[in-house]
Specification:
The complex is a heterodimer of chains A (872) and B (137). Chain A is built from 26 helices and 39 strands. By secondary structure, chain A is of the alpha/beta class. Chain A folds into 6 domains: 4-132 and 264-326, FAD/NAD(P)-binding domain; 135-260, FAD/NAD(P)-binding domain; 339-421, Enolase-like, domain 1, CATH 3.30.390.30; 423-488, Arc Repressor Mutant, subunit A, CATH 1.10.10; 499-542; 640-798, Sulfite Reductase Hemoprotein, domain 1. The longest helix of chain A has 18 residues, at 732-749. Chain A is globular and about 100 Å long. Chain A starts with a helix and ends in a 9-residue tail after the last strand. Chain B is mainly beta. Chain B has one helix at 9-15; strands at 28-33, 41-47, 50-56, 62-66, 81-85, 88-92, 99-101, 117-118, 120-123, 126-130. In chain B, strands 2-3-4-8 form a 4-stranded antiparallel sheet, with no helix packed on it. In chain B, strands 1-10-9 form a 3-stranded antiparallel sheet, with no helix packed on it. In chain B, strand 5 and strand 6 form a beta hairpin. The chains are: A alpha/beta (872), B mainly beta (137). At the A-B interface, helix 16, helix 17, strand 37 and strand 39 of A face helix 1, strand 1, strand 2, strand 3 and strand 4 of B.
Chain lengths: 872, 137
C-alpha cells in the first residue's frame, strides 16, 4: 500500500478537473475544526486540482472554532466563529453537505451513505468524526435539565435553560469542565464544579497546582467539590434536579452540564470492520492511515501511536500529514507536544513535558505562594541535571522559555529557573520557541542578526513565530533584547522618540514649530518620515491650517497640495460626499467641473467621486467651482478620516432597522479633517445584512433592533481583517462617545502609518487582550484620561474648517499653486495624456526624457554629467 | 484641453518658450526672487526648456537639480520633502520616497542613480542658474 496507488487515477467514473485530467474523489466525514483543516490543507497543496472533495457533516453549520466556543455566550456570533472561508465550498471542486451525518461505509464499493440516503463514492476517505462528550453512566443523567458542552446547539440549549436558572453544576473539573463552568458563570448562574479526581485539571496539573487552581477558582465565587463522585440524579417536583453524591451529600440545581472528558466517535469505523483501540479510537499508522489503505482518520476519532489526542493542535498536524500524503508526500505524524497554556477563569495554567513526574526517579522542585496564588513545579531527572517537564499555575509568564528546556541540561539552578525563568542566552539554538509554527531559537536569532528584524512584528512576519497562540511572544521579546537589538521605537535618524512619545512631548511642551521640536527632542533638519509625523501631530492638536507658516514645509506632497499625487505628476480631487448622499444638483456640478477641466472621473470605493488629471495650477480654480456649489475637501489626500460609508438604511430599505445614512453623515461630519497616524475609514449598516461592509473598516457600526453595535479595528487593503465587536446595543450618544475616545486614543498612541487593526494587535502583544485593554481605558477610564480625550475631540469638532476654502481665501497660500516659479502660467509640458474609453489617462513616460538643453539658454550641469547617470 | 499626445518630450520642451528674462551677465540666468522660495521646500523652474527643482535649505543654502524623478519619470522632485541625511541636505521624491543628495544629485537609496545638478547662486536677492551662454552676455 504505497502512496503511489493514489498517484495513478483509476479509470472509471470520474469528474473532470479544470485541466481535463480525471479527478479523484476525496470524501471527508465530519466538518469540525480538524476536518475543515484537512480540506483547507488539501486545497492549498493540490495545485493541480487532482482531488474533487465532498464533505459530509452532522451539524447544521459549517466548521467553527470550538476552542473559542465559550465566547459564543458573550456575544461572538456563530458566523464569527466560523472557520470556513467564503470561497472554500464552490459547489464543484469542493462540496459540503451539512446536517447529513454519514451512516455507513462500504469498503468494497468504496461508498459512503448518509442519513438522507445519499451515496458518495470515494477514492480516498478521511474520517474526521471527532468525539462526543463522555457522560458518566449515572442514573438520571438523561433527565430534562442535563446538558453536554460541545456544539453551538448545546450552548443554545444551555442558554435557554439558564435564563430561568439560579444554580447550576458542571460535572467534570478538567479543562473542558472549567470552560463550561466559566460559561455558566457568564450566564449569571451560581456555579458548582464537581470533580471525581482529588484535584481540578487532573490531566494537566499535579496536586499542588490543582490546589492553587481551586483557590483561584473559588475566589471567583464558584463552588468546587473535588474527590466527589456523582451517584445519581433525580428529578424534583418543581423541575429542578437533585444530585446525589457518594456519602449521602446532595445538591439541588436547575441544570447540570456534563463535561467529563470525550470519547472518540468511531462507530462508523467499527461497523465497517476497521481496527479500533481497546478503549476506542480508529487505529492509524504514522501516516494517519487505517488498515484500509483508502481510509484515513484524523483528530479526536483517531488513535495515533496509542494515544487519542483531545487537543486541536495534534489534530491539525494530522490533517496536514494526510493532506501531504494525498498529494504524494511522505509526511508523518510523530509524538505531538501536548504542552498547554491557557487562561481559565482568568487564571494562567500551563503544563509541559512530563508534568506528573512519570519518568522513573524523577525529582520535583516546587515553589508555592498561596497568597499570590502562584504554584510552579519543575520535574527533573534523578540526577537533577535535565529538565523533564513542569506545571505553572497563577503565573505562566516563563512558560515559553521553560518549555524549550525540556530534554535540555539545566542551564541554571532550579530556584533561579522557577523564580525568574531561564535566561534566554542559555537557550540552545535548536530549542523550539514557537511550537505552533515549529520555529527554533536559532531561526529567530538568525532573523534578528541576518534579516534585520528589530521588533516582535518583524520577527513574526519573517519567521511566523508567535502568530498562532502568541504564548511565545514574551520569549521573542527576550531574544530580541538578548541579541543586543534594542527593539527600537525611534522614528528616524532625527528623533529617538516613538510617534506616541513625540505626540506626548509636543502636547505637553506646547511646542508648535518643527524647528523648536527638533531642537528640543531631536537633531538635524528632518526627513520624509519625521516631518509628516510632526505635521500630523500638530494637526491633531489643532494647530490651525496645515499650510500655515512653517507647517507647510512638513507636509507630504498630497497634504501640501490638498490633493492626491498621481503617477504622472498630476493630482486627483475628491470632494466630500458625507455618507455617500448627494443631491442631483451637486452631482451635476461635479460632472460639469470634470467636463470643463477634462478630468478622468471615477466612482471610489468610499461612495464618492474622484476627479483625476488636474495640474497644480488648476487645483484652486477647480476648488473654487466646487466650494461655491457647497462642496468641501474630502481629505482623500490626508492621513485622516476618509469616509463613513453607509447603506440606505431604514428610511428606504425594507429590511433596515435603523437610519444608517443619517448616522453615517453625522459621524463623517463629526470626524472630518481629523488627522491620524494612518487613514481612517468607517461604515454604518442599517441591519445585520451589512451592506455597508462596516466590519471591513477601522470603526464599523451595525444596527441592531435596539441600538447600534460597534466594531473596531477592521480594514481592507494589504492584509484584510474583520473589525471585532466592542460594544452592543448602544444608543447614539453612547456610541459617539466611544468612537470619540477610540479615535483620540488611537491618534495619540499609535505608531506612524499603523492602521487601527495593527494598533490593536500591538495592544494584544503588550496587554494580552487588546480589546479588553481598550475597554478598560475608554470605558472604565482606568488611565483617567477619558475626560481629556473627550475634550480633545470636542475641540476638534468645534475648530474644524474646510482646508480648500481656507486656501482660496489666502493669497499667500495660493502662491504655491503654480507650475513654475518663473513661468506660473506655463503648463508642465511633460504632462501628456492619451484617450481610453472616452476619457484621459496618463501617457507612458518617455523613456529618454531629459532633452539636451538649448545650447544658448539651457542650464549647465555641474554634477550628474560626470557621474554615471543611470536613467530608469 | 488635451495636449496632442505622444509627441516626444524633447519636442514638446523645445516648443515651450523658454523663460530667459534677465539672461545675460556671463551666462547666469535670473529665475526668481530668493523670497519666492519657501524655506525647506522646493519650487520648479523652467530654464531653457529644462525643468529644474530649486531648494532653499534651513541654513540659507540654495540648490538646483533636475525636476525629473528618475524612478517614475514624472517631473515632481521640487514637491518632495527637504531635510537631511547625516551631513547631506536631501530631498525625498514625493512619488516613492527615494532620497537624493541635493549637492551631488546622487540617490542615497540607490547608488546607481543620480539626477543632474545645476549651478545656482543668489545675487542681490535674485536666484540665478548658470546656462553657459557666453553669447548672451
Amino acid at each position: 500500500m504505497s502512496v503511489d496507488m493514489f498517484a495513478e487515477p483509476v479509470p472509471g467514473l470520474r469528474a473532470e478537473t479544470v485541466a481535463g485530467v480525471a479527478a479523484r474523489r476525496l470524501v471527508v466525514v465530519g466538518n469540525g475544526m480538524v476536518g475543515q483543516r484537512l480540506v483547507d490543507a488539501v486545497r492549498e497543496r493540490d495545485t493541480e486540482q487532482r482531488w474533487q472533495i465532498t464533505v459530509v457533516g452532522e451539524e447544521p453549520r459549517p466548521a467553527y472554532d470550538r476552542v473559542a466556543l465559550t465566547s459564543y455566550l458573550t456575544g461572538t456570533s456563530a458566523e464569527e466563529l466560523s472557520l470556513v472561508s467564503e470561497d472554500c465550498y464552490d459547489g464543484e471542486r469542493c462540496v459540503l453537505h451539512l446536517g447529513e451525518p454519514a451512516v455507513a461505509i462500504d469498503r468494497d464499493t468504496r461508498t459512503v451513505t448518509t442519513a438522507t440516503g445519499r451515496v458518495v463514492e470515494y477514492d480516498a476517505l478521511v474520517l474526521a468524526t471527532g468525539s462526543r462528550p463522555f457522560v458518566p453512566p449515572v442514573p438520571g443523567a438523561d433527565l430534562d435539565g442535563c446538558f453536554v458542552y460541545r456544539t453551538i446547539d448545546d450552548l443554545d440549549a444551555i442558554r435557554e435553560r439558564a435564563a430561568s436558572a439560579r444554580v447550576g453544576a458542571v460535572v467534570g473539573g478538567g479543562l473542558l469542565g472549567l470552560e463550561a463552568a466559566n460559561a455558566l458563570r457568564s450566564l449569571g448562574v451560581e456555579t458548582h464544579v464537581v470533580e471525581f479526581a482529588p484535584r481540578l485539571m487532573p490531566a494537566q496539573v499535579d496536586q499542588g497546582g490543582g490546589e492553587m487552581l481551586r483557590r483561584a477558582v473559588e475566589s471567583l465565587g464558584l463552588d468546587v467539590h473535588v474527590d466527589t463522585a456523582t451517584e445519581q440524579l433525580t428529578a424534583l417536583d418543581d423541575g429542578r434536579l437533585r444530585m446525589n453524591f457518594a456519602g449521602g451529600v446532595v445538591l439541588d440545581v436547575d441544570l447540570v452540564v456534563f463535561s467529563a472528558g470525550i470519547r472518540p466517535r468511531d462507530e462508523l469505523a467499527r461497523t465497517c470492520g476497521l481496527d479500533l483501540g481497546e478503549r476506542g479510537g480508529v487505529q492509524v499508522d504514522d501516516a494517519c492511515r487505517t488498515a484500509d489503505p483508502a481510509i484515513w482518520a484524523i483528530g479526536e476519532c483517531a488513535l495515533a501511536g496509542g494515544t487519542i489526542y483531545g487537543l486541536v493542535a495534534p489534530g491539525y498536524e494530522m490533517a496536514e500529514v494526510v493532506a501531504d500524503r494525498l498529494v504524494g508526500g511522505t509526511a508523518a505524524f510523530t509524538d505531538c507536544d501536548t504542552s498547554t497554556k491557557l487562561k481559565l477563569l482568568g487564571v494562567d495554567v500551563a503544563s509541559f513535558g512530563d508534568a506528573h513526574g512519570a519518568t522513573p526517579g524523577a525529582l520535583d522542585v516546587v515553589y508555592a505562594d498561596p497568597v499570590a496564588g502562584v504554584y510552579k513545579k519543575l520535574v527533573l531527572t534523578d540526577d537533577a541535571s535535565t529538565v523533564l517537564g513542569g506545571v505553572l499555575v497563577g503565573d505562566a509568564s516563563s512558560y515559553a522559555a521553560l518549555r524549550t528546556l525540556v530534554g535540555q541540561p539545566l542551564p541554571d539552578t532550579p530556584e533561579q529557573l522557577l523564580m525568574a525563568g531561564p535566561s534566554t542566552s542559555s537557550l540552545d539554538d535548536a530549542a523550539q520557541v514557537c511550537t505552533c509554527q515549529n520555529v527554533s531559537a536559532g531561526a529567530i536569532r538568525t532573523a534578528i542578526a541576518d534579516d534585520g528584524c528589530c521588533d516582535v512584528a518583524s520577527v513574526k512576519t519573517c519567521t511566523k513565530a508567535g502568530t498562532v497562540c502568541g504564548s511565545c511572544v514574551p520569549l521573542i521579546k527576550t531574544l530580541l533584547a538578548q541579541s543586543g537589538v534594542e527593539a527600537s521605537t525611534a522614528l528616524c535618524e532625527h528623533f529617538d522618540l516613538s510617534r506616541a512619545e513625540l505626540f506626548d512631548a509636543i502636547r505637553v511642551t506646547g511646542l508648535r514649530s518643527f524647528s523648536d521640536i527638533v531642537a528640543g527632542h531631536g537633531r538635524g533638519r528632518g526627513c520624509d518620515i519625521c516631518k509628516p509625523v510632526v505635521a500630523s501631530i500638530l494637526a491633531s492638536l489643532g494647530s490651525g491650517h496645515i499650510l500655515d507658516g512653517e507647517q507647510a514645509a512638513l507636509q507630504d506632497t498630497n497634504d501640501h497640495f490638498l490633493a492626491n499625487l498621481q503617477r504622472n505628476g498630476t493630482y486627483s480631487v475628491v470632494p466630500r460626499i458625507p455618507g455617500g448622499e448627494l443631491t442631483p444638483e451637486k452631482l451635476i456640478v461635479i460632472g460639469e467641473v470634470a467636463r470643463d477641466f477634462g478630468l478622468y472621473t471615477k466612482i471610489t470605493g468610499g461612495q464618492r467621486i474622484d476627479l483625476f488629471g488636474a495640474r497644480v495650477e488648476q487645483l484652486p480654480i477647480i476648488w473654487r467651482r466646487l466650494v461655491d456649489a457647497g462642496f468641501e475637501s474630502g481629505h482623500a489626500y490626508g492621513k485622516a478620516l476618509r469616509t463613513v460609508k453607509s447603506c440606505v438604511g431604514s428610511t428606504w430599505c425594507r429590511y433596515g432597522v435603523q437610519d444608517s445614512t443619517s448616522l453615517a453623515i453625522m459621524l463623517e461630519l463629526r470626524y472630518r479633517g481629523l488627522r491620524s497616524p494612518h487613514k481612517i475609514k468607517a461604515g454604518v449598516s442599517g441591519c445585520a445584512r451589512e451592506c455597508a461592509e462596516a466590519r471591513g473598516k477601522d470603526f464599523g457600526i451595525i444596527a441592531s433592533d435596539c441600538g447600534w453595535n460597534l466594531y473596531l479595528g477592521g480594514n481592507g487593503g494589504f492584509n484584510p481583517r474583520h473589525a471585532q465587536l466592542f460594544a452592543s446595543d448602544l444608543d447614539t450618544d453612547e456610541l459617539v462617545r466611544l468612537i470619540d475616545r477610540f479615535l483620540m486614543f488611537y491618534v495619540r498612541t499609535a505608531d506612524r502609518l499603523q492602521r487601527t487593526s495593527a494598533w490593536l494587535e500591538a495592544l494584544n502583544d503588550e496587554h494580552g487582550d487588546g480589546l479588553a485593554y481598550l475597554r478598560r481605558v475608554i470605558v472604565d477610564d482606568e488611565l483617567g484620561i477619558c475626560a481629556d480625550l473627550d475634550a480633545a475631540m470636542d475641540t476638534h469638532v468645534d475648530t474644524y474648517a474646510d482646508e480648500w476654502a481656507a486656501v482660496l481665501d489666502d493669497d499667500e497660500k495660493l502662491r504655491r499653486f503654480v507650475s513654475f516659479v518663473n513661468a506660473p502660467d506655463v503648463p508642465d509640458p511633460s504632462i501628456r495624456f492619451v484617450t481610453e474609453r472616452e476619457q484621459i489617462r496618463p501617457a507612458d513616460p518617455d523613456p529618454d526624457p531629459d532633452p539636451d538643453p538649448d545650447p544658448a539658454t539651457g542650464p549647465v550641469p555641474i554634477a550628474g554629467a560626470q557621474l554615471e547617470v543611470v536613467r530608469r | 484641453m488635451m495636449p496632442d499626445s505622444l509627441a516626444p518630450v524633447s519636442d514638446v520642451l523645445q516648443r515651450v518658450a523658454p523663460d530667459t528674462r534677465g539672461a545675460g551677465r556671463n551666462g547666469w540666468v535670473d529665475v526668481c526672487g530668493y523670497d519666492a522660495l519657501s524655506l525647506e521646500r522646493g519650487a520648479a523652474a523652467l530654464v531653457g526648456g529644462v525643468q529644474i527643482a530649486l531648494f532653499r535649505t534651513y541654513d540659507g543654502g540654495i540648490y538646483a537639480i533636475s525636476n525629473r524623478d528618475p524612478f517614475s519619470g514624472a517631473y515632481v522632485l521640487a514637491r518632495g520633502i527637504v531635510g537631511n541625511r547625516g551631513e547631506a541636505p536631501t530631498v525625498s521624491s514625493p512619488m516613492h520616497k527615494q532620497v537624493f543628495d541635493l549637492r551631488t544629485g546622487r540617490c542615497l537609496d540607490d547608488p546607481d542613480v543620480a539626477v543632474m545638478v545645476y549651478r545656482v547662486r543668489v545675487t542681490h536677492g535674485r536666484v540665478e542658474v548658470y546656462t553657459g551662454s557666453e553669447a548672451a552676455a
